Amino acid sequence: MEPIRNYLTRPVLVLICLLLPVLLHAAKPEDTPGKGPDNSNDPGGGGDSPLHQEYFTANPYTGTQSCLGSSCHDKEAEDVLATGHWNWQGVSDNLAGLEGEVHGKRDMINNFCVAVPTNEGRCAQCHIGYGYTDTSFDFSDATKIDCLVCHDQTGTYIKGATTAGLPEPAVDLNAVARSVGDNGGVPGRINCTFCHANAGGGDNVKHGDISMALIDTTREFDVHMGTDGGDMRCVDCHDVDRDEGGQVASHGIGGMPYHSVDEGTMKACSDCHQNNSQLHAGKVLQMVKTHDRLACQVCHIPAIARQVPTKTEWYWSDAGDLDRVPVIDPVTNRPDYDPKKGSFVWEYDVRPALRFHNGKWKKTIIGVNDTITQEPLDLGSPAATREDADAMIYPFKLMTGNQVADNVNNRVQVPHLFKASTEMPNPYWGVYDWDLSLWDSFSYPTGQAYSGDFGFVATEMLLAVNHEIAPAEVSLGTDGNCLDCHAEGLIDWPALGWENDPYESKRSGKPQ
Q1: N or C terminus: which one in the chain shows less Cβ crowding within 10 Å?
Q2: Model-level pTM greater than 0.90?
Q3: Where does residue 410 rank: exposed (0-12), middle (13-18), buried (19+ CB within 10 A)?
């Protein structure tokens, strides 16, 4: 049950710190919720620092330029400019068939809000920069880096929803800047979770295992981040690369290699949990020994969205009905419809889908492999199969739905959704006209042709699940119960490469 190092995804969380190296030695989570202990006696740094307090008391914060120059953080800024979190792309060594090329969020298609191009000003609420509105954004300009979003220690910093990454006007930027040295400047859960929980347009919409609740949750919902459990920060697992002295060597963060460059240090389960015979006993130990291709997460994440519901279906073809009254689901308390986005299905307690995975992904890239070859169109899934000896079974969230496509060119399309401009006057969220929004995208250009004849294509997408680790006592297989997985209808065995449940096949003599 040893997981594959460097492919535990979760979200992936941002360290873009522009701090003096002496302030950047991360501490083990022990005392301060989500932020690590006070390590003021640690010669490597990590405790509170008066430097930012003093400087930004005497000098007003005037933007990122306040962090640069004067022998402060120019080197750190240069490092940030090379990261996947900043560029939203990188060398795609983990994209099957596209190894060595440069790809990432900037050219991938998903079945949530579809794609970044033409919609940058809205997507950039979760970019670690300021002012990313279109292709003219200068990714070499260090003054555009948003240092505060990752290093605010007040818990008050928030980006505006439609301001291309700029902070809300009400944020006291001087107070935030003064706080940066507190707790060693290390990001707490709140710094990372704001963007990664709200991906897809709302809390827990996209990933299912990352919600705002993780900022202050209990062991029941996540044994690592629960305040009565491990009380860990995201960066305790999603770390940067460090030198021999423990100082930050790179601002790249471990995790999410299929979105961008594989960088930083991603902790594996075995880095902390090393001995199966001590972790498991009795029937459970026997089960673990006989299921050597199961990743730890399969049993220890029996369900996601256990505290906050997640979207599991999204149908863009239903969008545009301004007269339709949304129905509030009585279980999830979420609406089933939005005229801008279409109809949805929300769920609690979603059992993850299982697939073989070895770190390689299939992704749909704009202008590269966006042709519709089958329905549902696979927008993202592990590339491995049961036949790959290095692959293990991992859990994933399965997202299904439909989205706009070109009927003539047989291609899934990128629509212009957000904000009118002189060059693109017809965003779908303004005019509710798919045809006009697609002509906008064609003129952008996204790199996609458009015939003028649109329809909708069914799509599905798998997202890796690594959070919401449940307490051992409620994990699958507790007391060696085989029926947690081998009861009828729980597992999609053909998707894993078996014709039938191998356990039942062995008992009945049916082919596997």
Answers
A1: C
A2: no
A3: middle
